[in-house]
Design goal:
transcription regulation; ArsR family transcriptional regulator; sequence-specific DNA binding; single chain; 5 helices; Dimeric_a/b-barrel; Arc Repressor Mutant, subunit A; Alpha-Beta Plaits; Tscrpt_reg_AsnC-like
Length: 158
């Protein structure tokens, strides 16, 4: 997966606003709209751009309770890890999930309508799973920053 300075500029632009037209992105990156479209298509096909998303306010859609949950598995075996990753992917309550090093095995970002709903989720998702040793919940009091923008550096051109 290679990208050049022009691709890096396109990535910076679309991370800030992916609703811009190819013509506008091209103008900002010094390209024609057609050349910009070709580059965007390649960046997507090579999975440098993984998705085009909108960041939605959890409160605005009735899910104001947000938590970070540290999960520790009973054993670290590849089949157990893979099974839990699958459970994370299939859960609508889990917005983001990360397999991590340190004191926990996974960190999850979870939303709920109420604390009662979160309790029901914990019973179903954690307590009924014998592979989970334990979990710790941190309730988010204020979302200070939300985004997916990655700092982009142009690769050195040969």
């Amino acid at each position: 997966m290679q990208y050049d300075r022009t691709d890096a500029r396109i990535l910076e632009i679309v991370q800030k606003n992916n609703r811009l037209t190819s013509e506008t992105i091209g103008d900002l990156a010094g390209l024609s709209a057609t050349a910009c479209q070709r580059r965007l298509k390649r960046l997507r096909s090579e999975r440098i751009i993984e998705a085009d998303v909108s960041i939605v306010s959890p409160k605005a859609v009735g899910r104001p309770v947000q938590m970070l949950v540290l999960v520790t598995l009973e054993r670290e075996r590849s089949d157990i890890i893979d099974k839990f990753k699958k459970a994370i992917r299939s859960s609508t309550e889990v917005v983001n999930g990360y397999y991590v090093t340190g004191d926990a095995d996974f960190v999850l970002y979870v939303t709920a309508r109420t604390m009662e709903d979160y309790e029901q989720f914990t019973r179903r998702f954690f307590y009924e799973n014998s592979d989970i040793k334990g979990f710790k919940t941190m309730v988010i009091m204020d979302r200070v920053k939300a985004g997916f923008a990655i700092p982009i550096e142009a690769l050195e051109e040969a």
